[in-house]
Design goal:
Elements lengths: L2 E8 L6 H12 L12 E6 L6 H15 L5 E8 L1
Antiparallel strand pairs: 1-2, 1-3
C-alpha cells in the first residue's frame, strides 16, 4: 500500500521552544556546530489503492485544514513514498 508523507514545521518567524531546548542541549553536550534546531511533525497516510491526483489533492486539503495549524505551522512537503 502506498503512503503519503506530510511534513509540517513551525512557521519560521515563530519561536520553536522544543527546538530551542534541543539546541541548548546539543551545545552542552559538545555539539556546537549545530546552531539552530527546529522540530516539526511527520504524518503518514496509508492509501488503500492507487495514489491519483485526486488523492494527492485530498491529502493536501487534509494537511492544510486538519493536520496542521495554519496560524503557527506550514505544510512543507507532501510526497508519496
Amino acid at each position: 500500500m502506498p503512503t503519503i508523507v506530510v511534513d509540517v514545521m513551525p512557521k519560521a518567524e515563530l519561536l520553536d521552544p522544543q527546538g530551542k531546548a534541543v539546541t541548548g542541549s546539543l551545545a552542552r553536550l559538545g555539539h556546537e556546530k549545530f546552531q539552530n534546531v527546529r522540530i516539526g511533525k511527520r504524518v503518514e497516510l496509508t492509501v488503500d489503492g492507487e495514489v491519483t491526483d485526486e488523492v494527492l489533492a485530498e491529502a493536501k486539503t487534509l494537511a492544510e485544514e486538519i493536520l496542521s495549524n495554519q496560524v503557527i505551522e506550514d505544510v512543507v512537503s507532501i510526497e508519496v513514498v
